Every structure is written in structure tokens, then in C-alpha cells.
Amino acid sequence: MVTGAGRLASGPVRPQPLIAVADVEESSRWYQRLLGCESAHGGPEYERLVRDGELILQPHAWEAEHHHGPIGDPHTKPYGNGALLWFETDEFDSAVARVEELGADVIKPPHRNPPPGQPGGPAHREVWLRDPDGYTVVLASPDGEAS
User: Fold this and answer.
1) pTM here?
2) 83 and 140 share a domain?
3) Rounded CA gap, 127 and 111, in Å?
4) Per-residue DSSP letter, 110
5) Residue 56 domain boundaries
6) Number of structural domains, the chain?
7) What would the pLDDT profile of 82-109 be if each residue is shown by its tens digit?
């Protein structure tokens, strides 16, 4: 990776998505069940969800300003318009079973990307759903898994 000064950057870059939610504790429970992760913080204003010690998602209360001020406007919808919360999982079938157990609003049922017989693409499986706040969440198997 080239930095602004034309030098190669070193060290990993890890996504740490933060989403504003109406009820942090409810969102935390929902994502813990969906992703098989656990709380590393807890509380009604902010949560850190981890799996195998790695931070994967931060639900944050809309109204909690902390040191940074408001995150956004909860009246502007749809939340995350144009952004997807995308999670790769080695346990795709188990993840789909958890989606069903949660009774989640499924936008696109499990499918292959690209469709069978079409070349290119990641050659994996996906399921698209909505979380309790209306964010679009995608669970995907690893690239090449559905070759």
C-alpha cells in the first residue's frame, strides 16, 4: 500500500465498524447470537463485540455523545444507506440456521455469488438480512467455497 508520501504503509488494517442503534443491549444480544461473538464491554450506551479476541462490531447508542459528539441523526433513514455490514464466516450453514432461529428479516435468501454456471466473482455463498435497526447485514462463506 502506498501512503500519501509515496511510501509503502506497513502493518495490518482491521475494520472496526461502529453502528448507531436504538437499543445497544438488544443489538448486542442479536449480534452475539447471529455471529457467535461475545461482549467485551457491555452497557446501554456502547458495546464492543469480539470473536476470538478480535473486535468485529461496535453498537453505539444514537444519543450517547461521549467525547465525540453525536454520531448521526436517528431520524434520517434508511440507516447505513449504501453501506453493508459484511461478515465472512467459515460456518455458513450454521450462520444461516442462526438467521432462521432469530427470525431475521431475510432480504436475499442463501444463494451463490455469482449464480451457478456463471464465471468470475467470489464463488461463495451469501445470505442478506436486516438487523433490528434496519441495517443490511450480509453473511458470506469464504471466497471459492462454492466453486
Assistant:
1) 0.88
2) yes
3) 7
4) E
5) 14-64
6) 2
7) 899 999 999 999 999 999 999 999 999 9
